[in-house]
Design goal:
The protein is an alpha/beta fold and 318 residues long. The chain folds into 2 domains: 125 residues, NAD(P)-binding Rossmann-like Domain (Rossmann fold, 3-Layer(aba) Sandwich); 176 residues, Rossmann fold (3-Layer(aba) Sandwich). The protein is 35% helix and 16% strand. The protein is built from 12 helices and 12 strands. Helix 5 crosses helix 7. The two termini are 25 Å apart. The structure holds NADP nicotinamide-adenine-dinucleotide phosphate (NAP). NADP nicotinamide-adenine-dinucleotide phosphate binds next to helix 7. The site of NADP nicotinamide-adenine-dinucleotide phosphate has 30 residues, from helix 7.
């Protein structure tokens, strides 16, 4: 393999340790130097040719501007809403991400959150541990099998969620920017109409300006008092204040949330709600899937610096 050890790579976020170790062995690696010693960063910045970051990382235009030799931003994650792709493109900087290798994991997480929120499994665990079973049975929960599932975003992961939901005998409908003629599920152009026709609404679109607060108070109203929301997309896609109010007032029955507006900070009002299941953005967080993501993120860097075609550039850079 070509010697890549003279290429300077900046990590713009804390990376998966095995991925970082591989980068350190291969490149001249600078761990979040832009967040630390300004003088040290100013010295290295002109030589940085690649940025390695995560799906939730911020790579703003201001950082790209400070890196005149930058050629590629490799995102460890499929979502890249934190990267200023327009600024990168304007400079001829390529952006890559890690689609597909995490579909199964995120779909499993979505189904898990749906089951946990409906069947109250975390609360059931607490019920036993706290000895409350001794005083009587736990209140009844909600049935998932056979229910109506609405999927907001019918892309790679949305389709993997639908496949799993079919095994639960669920009726599936979805919204996306366009209908998918090849899929056997009902399409609703409008997310309010989808919510009205759903018992469970699972959100799995990209984040960013195009989907900001797509799930708002009107959508939650349409989902209704027996409805459950699951968000495994980005916190920005759901109006978090509207969600908190809907949960507090019983406008919807419950929620399963893997993502939040201001991670890792989760509003106290959400934490206080018993009918909400919370997870710390673990959609793709298994050893096997994080390794597959690391291999692909690394593969994109290696392809770029050995003159090979990029494995998975983001659509804007194809
Ligand atoms: P994808 O294949 O690009 O699918 C995205 C879907 O969202 C597409 O169906 C797209 O519609 C739809 N969409 C985009 N903008 C929309 C809008 N304004 N209104 C309605 N639908 C819209 O992406 P993916 O690989 O499935 O990943 C989806 C997202 O999941 C990622 O971008 C990331 O934010 C999130 N994610 C979260 C985790 C986690 O840990 N929780 C892990 C991985 C991914 P069209 O098909 O019509 O274009």
């Amino acid at each position: 393999m070509s010697d890549l050890s003279s290429i300077d790579v900046l990590a713009a976020a804390r990376l998966f340790p095995a991925y970082q170790a591989h980068l350190e062995k291969t490149f001249r690696f600078h761990d979040r130097l832009h967040e630390g010693d300004a003088a040290a960063f100013a010295e290295v910045a002109p030589r940085i040719r690649a940025v390695a970051c995560g799906g939730e990382s911020k790579v703003p235009g201001a950082l790209i501007e400070r890196l005149p030799a930058l050629e590629i931003i490799s995102v460890f994650g499929v979502g890249y809403d934190g990267v200023d792709v327009a600024a990168a493109k304007a400079r001829g900087v390529m952006v890559t991400h890690t689609p597909n290798v995490l579909n199964d994991e995120v779909a499993d997480t979505a189904i898990g959150l749906m089951l946990c929120a409906a069947r109250q499994l975390p609360a059931a665990d607490r019920y036993v541990r706290e000895g409350r079973w001794l005083s009587g049975p736990m209140p009844l929960s909600r049935k998932v099998s056979g229910a109506r599932l609405g999927i907001v975003g019918m892309g790679r992961i949305g389709q993997a969620i639908a496949q799993r939901a079919l095994a639960f005998g669920m009726t599936i409908a979805y919204t996306a920017r366009s209908a998918k003629a090849e899929l056997p599920y009902a399409y609703h152009a409008d997310v309010v109409a989808l919510a009205e026709a759903s018992d469970f609404l699972v959100v799995i679109t990209p984040g960013g300006a195009g989907t900001r607060h797509l799930v708002n108070a009107r959508v939650l109203e349409a989902l209704g008092p027996d409805g459950i929301l699951v968000n495994v997309a980005r916190g920005s896609v759901v109006d978090e204040q509207a969600l908190i109010e809907a949960l507090e007032r019983g406008t919807i029955a419950g929620a399963g949330l893997d993502v939040f507006a201001d991670e890792p900070r989760v509003p106290e009002r959400l934490i206080a709600l018993p009918h909400v299941v919370l997870a710390p953005h673990i959609g793709s967080a298994t050893v096997a899937t994080r390794q597959a993501m690391a291999d692909l993120a690394f593969g994109n860097l290696r392809a770029h610096f050995t003159g090979q075609p990029l494995l998975t550039p983001v659509p804007e850079c194809r």
